[in-house]
Design goal:
There is one protein chain. The protein is an all-beta fold and 73 residues long. Helices cover 0% and strands 49% of the residues. It contains no helices and 6 strands. A 6-stranded antiparallel β-sheet has the order 1-6-2-3-4-5, with no helix packed on it.
Length: 73
């Protein structure tokens, strides 16, 4: 998983497939890093942390998908 202090490598793209981790720009202007799922009438952005609730939205702008994580030791 992605830990606090990790660097995330993101490939810039405007579309995503279900299950991909993406940088998504929300309707309120905030960006978030979540797993993307397109449902019948909405988009679900699922956090990796099970203690947090998913975000449901009708419109998000995909900024890119995560292709790697760099961790310093």
């Amino acid at each position: 998983g992605i830990l606090d202090g990790d660097f995330v490598v993101v490939e810039q793209k405007e579309t995503a497939n279900n299950g991909e981790i993406v940088v998504a720009l929300l309707e309120n202007g905030f960006a978030t890093l979540k797993r993307f799922f397109k449902e019948a009438t909405r988009i679900r952005l699922e956090p990796a942390n099970a203690q947090m609730a998913p975000i449901f939205a009708k419109d998000v702008k995909i900024q890119g998908k995560v292709v790697g994580v760099i961790r310093r030791y």
